[in-house]
Design a protein that fits this description.
The chain has 327 residues and is an alpha+beta fold. 38% of the residues lie in helices and 21% in strands. The longest helix is centred in the C-terminal third of the chain and has 15 residues, at 280-294.
Length: 327
Amino acid sequence: MSPSSVKVLPMTRGKRTSSPDLEVRLLREGIIESTHHVQAVICDQRGRVLSVAGNAETAAFIRSALKPFQALAVTTTGTMERYGLNDKDLAVMCGSHQGNTEQARQVFNILWRSDIDPSVLQCPIPEGKQSPLQHNCSGKHAGMLAVCQQRNFPLNTYLQRQHPVQKLILSQVSELLRMPGEEFISAHDDCGAPTYFMQLGQMGALYAQLASGDRLDLERIVRAMTHHPQMVAGSGAFDTELMRLTEGELVSKSGAEGIQCIGRVGEGMGLAIKAMDGAKRAKYAVAIHLLKQLGWLTPAVSETLAEQFMELSEFKRLDVVGELSLL
């Protein structure tokens, strides 16, 4: 069954859930050369849609923006305490890292403390690299394996949808969204782990809950990500730079194919973005544009991020047209 042929579960919302898309324009010396269409939604921790550009019910795979919630399996099972893992370990579990030496060593630390051989990792070896430890999802995989070790779950089948660790992750996501786990649509991400097909409003609601401060297990994940942003992505990457510059006020995680999710820490508000053509440059431009519109960035931080992610060269820059509509 294809995702386009299934009914996606309803979410708590107001009467209207759609408005015009945002448009990202690539300008070459001021002349439009290319355009991208992007949708975005702001939700609160109760799942209510507060504002939208596009359609809050647009559905997509959440991809790597799911990682903080996959890490809940680690923070809720005593795995951190059992193996003496720290917030830096937790941050790399939530990350899509660059595979540099520091990050790969951090993933190895998780496995070493959990008494797991790195050969058990089932994420691919990246092109031009020597080890699965350097794969951008290796931290997530190491976290799953640590839970398996702590719970005496089988190690060699940990990526299968019916494996106990995947069932545990799904049960926690379904609890947060107040939806039956069996009704989620899943598919394998590029690293082999399951990911889920959900509405933008549901992604926004997850990040609103992540950032709300209402649950200690989620708050620990936020603290790890915002205190160690270099483990979540890496130098020059959007998530790392945004969290570094905002000093704990925003928690951010990218996903492939144009997904970007951001939570306003302590305020229970989540922003979910989908570039409809999957373009990275478009989602980053929209994130900066909307965060500035929302007042979640200072002018200085907004300018710094725009220089990094919207001023593409001496001759090219990105411009965003449109805004969120209040419901």
